[in-house]
Specification:
The chain has a single domain, classed as 2-Layer Sandwich (Alpha-D-Glucose-1,6-Bisphosphate, Chain A, domain 4). Helix content is 29%, strand content 44%. It has three helices and eight strands; from the N terminus they run βααββββββαβ. It has helices at residues 16-24, 29-32, 117-149, and strands spanning 3-13, 36-43, 53-58, 66-76, 80-87, 89-100, 103-114, 152-153.
């Protein structure tokens, strides 16, 4: 399996609570994140969402789709959401939110391995394209979240 580690940082001029609500409310992602094709709840988890399992179907800028399930393993509202993923990708997604004045800083760490044979076979050559694709999907999410919240984007995404 090919392994990838991506870090994305969004700076959004909005209070942390609505940013948290949008990120924590994964079933609403398709409404504001154009690359999220579908999210289905498999298990609800506890009253905070801990243990919740969702199936995600993603589109990408490149001509392929990805599907996986995500299980929430840790929640510290409104600052941290940690999940394990399994399916065509396997690994971990960690969202960390913090306030900085009028802005919310959102950091997403995505550490995954690919399970599709063709992706693993092409990884030595296609890694730059997969990195570019991930960045494009995350840029779209940043812009979509800001539109959804009626907020301004601050700084440059990293």
């Amino acid at each position: 399996m090919a392994q990838y580690a991506f870090v994305t940082v969004w700076r959004i001029e909005a209070p942390i609570e609505p940013v948290w609500g949008a990120i924590h409310g994964v079933e609403g992602w398709p409404a504001w994140w154009s690359f999220v094709a579908n999210v289905v709840e498999i298990e609800p988890g506890d009253e905070n969402g801990l243990g919740a399992v969702h199936r995600f179907d993603w589109k990408t800028r490149l001509p392929y789709t990805l599907s996986f399930e995500s299980r929430v393993t840790q929640i510290e509202k409104p600052c941290l959401l940690d999940a394990r993923v399994d399916g065509e990708l396997m690994g971990r997604g960690l969202w960390r939110l913090s306030e900085a004045g009028e802005m919310t800083v959102v950091r997403h760490d995505w550490e995954v391995s690919t399970r599709r044979p063709w992706m693993n076979w092409l990884a030595p050559l296609a890694r730059p394209a997969f990195k570019w694709n991930h960045a494009a999907v995350m840029r779209d999410g940043r812009k979509g979240l800001a539109r959804h919240l009626g907020a301004r984007l601050l700084g440059i995404e990293s």
